[in-house]
């Protein structure tokens, strides 16, 4: 995984707060490992959708057959009704506020259609 720079298998980390027992499940996002992503997501109450802000990366992910769309839809279909959206790689856009707002707008429109 380190050599390729991608998650292949799910990994678990557990901790507790005064109110909750929390298990973080790191699931792969790469298309080749979608079965592992489904395995991890099917066990979740909440998901964190990481979106790459890089030019071309975001557009590929949010496109009709993109991974971002597929993962949001799969998570909802698997019963995950709470979604946190995080934007990664903003440094590649020189922290552009316009790019941030563009990503927020397009992502919000899509995930609302999914059911979030």
From TrEMBL:
Q: Which domain of life is it from?
A: Eukaryota
GO MF annotation, one:
translation elongation factor activity
- Signal peptide interval: none
Q: Where is the Tr-type G domain?
A: 1-116
- SUPFAM superfamilies in alphabetical order: P-loop containing nucleoside triphosphate hydrolases
Q: Which UniProt keywords apply?
A: Elongation factor, GTP-binding, Nucleotide-binding, Protein biosynthesis
The protein, known as: Translation elongation factor 1 alpha
